[in-house]
Amino acid sequence: MPRVERVGDENWAALKALRLRALEVDPDAFGATLAEESARDEAFWRRRILVGDWFLARTAEEAVGIAALVAPPASSEDERQLDAMWVAPSWRGRGVGEALIDAAVEHAARRGATSVSLTVVDGNTAARGLYLRMGFQPTGERSPRPRDPGRMHERFRLTLGAQFRTPAPSSPSSSTPTTIR
């Protein structure tokens, strides 16, 4: 099973490489395009790591999954959004998505979040099933995708209860592996 770790500034190149691979393999899954993201420089990727918390699932040989945890615009301070989730096709259905979600949710809870939300594009039944299995519930909020207004996506939310409450570490390390179940 791949190990999930939080991406630190020193791992910006690994983040960029996997993000570009995700955009190449599944171009319709994201708001950005491969052309846009390929043109971004090192400074952009280093800043991106500072804006949210990024997680990589890695085997000994390669990164096989990615997820970001961000503060959604115009949200309360105790809500986080799971974003940019992607698992390499050869690793789908093998627990990588669950491990990434666990790591992100546990991290959000340690930072004081009371909920984590995400959006799922219509027709992505595999992702929808994964999120439902992980405890996310549809909110009924639907909106057009910004890059493709002809397609809709739906918001899901996971309310974090006592099972996720743990004290925040005194000095978090950006590259410390996250414990997963």
CA-CA gap between termini: 11 Å
* Class of secondary structure makeup: alpha+beta
Low-confidence stretches: 165-181
Average per-residue pLDDT, rounded, comes to 87
Topology:
Layout: E1 3-6, H1 12-25, H2 34-38, H3 42-51, E2 53-58, E3 63-70, E4 79-87, H4 96-110, E5 115-121, H5 125-133, E6 137-144, E7 152-159
Parallel strand pairs: 4-5
Antiparallel strand pairs: 1-2, 2-3, 3-4, 5-7, 6-7
Structure commentary:
The radius of gyration is 16 Å and the shape is globular. A seven-stranded mixed sheet has the order 1-2-3-4-5-7-6, sandwiched between helices. Strand 6 and strand 7 form a beta hairpin. With 181 residues, the chain is α+β, with helices and mostly antiparallel strands. The chain has five helices and seven strands. Helix 1 (12-25) crosses helix 3.
Short description:
The chain has 181 residues and is α+β, with helices and mostly antiparallel strands.
Keywords:
single chain; 7-stranded mixed beta sheet; 181 residues; alpha+beta
